[in-house]
Amino acid sequence: MEENESGKPIKKRAKKPRARKGTSDSTALTKIYKKAAQIADLMTGQDILDDLRVLREAKNAVHRIYSKELKDLVEVPDHKTRLAATTLSRAYHEGLPVAKVLSLKGGFDLQSLMERMKHSPAFQRSLQKTMEGKEIPPVLPDAAREEEVQAT
Questions:
Q1: Residue 75: strand, helix, or coil
Q2: In 10 A of CB 41, how many CB atoms?
Q3: Cα gap 135→138, rounded to integer Å
Q4: pTM above 0.70?
Q5: 3-state DSSP helix/strand/coil percent for the chain, to nearest 5?
């Protein structure tokens, strides 16, 4: 064991701080999302001003802990609730991305669609495109090669 200048042994620290040992970022994030869901449950959606009041109170949340020096309860910031309220507020401000939903009703005839595709100039051009520098071998053997195989 290493010693310092005065001859006392130097203690090595653990890789993770003890206060956070056993927790990961994903569990901390999960706790914040759960807290945000609890705050969202308090928001009714009926009264916008009341919902804003709930968010403001959550952003200024405190909890009480016992102080040995003062021998009394002391208010300290509740960071988990504040972070959850800020996360929820940002989610409401930014909103969800616009999702396009396409709903089709009715029937279609596959045979007529295939016929239209066969006669479409755009479809014919797309069949002619090949990758530059790469030859695409035919899937089926052509008729001339097939006759050669049968002749032998």
A1: strand
A2: 9
A3: 9
A4: no
A5: 50, 10, 40
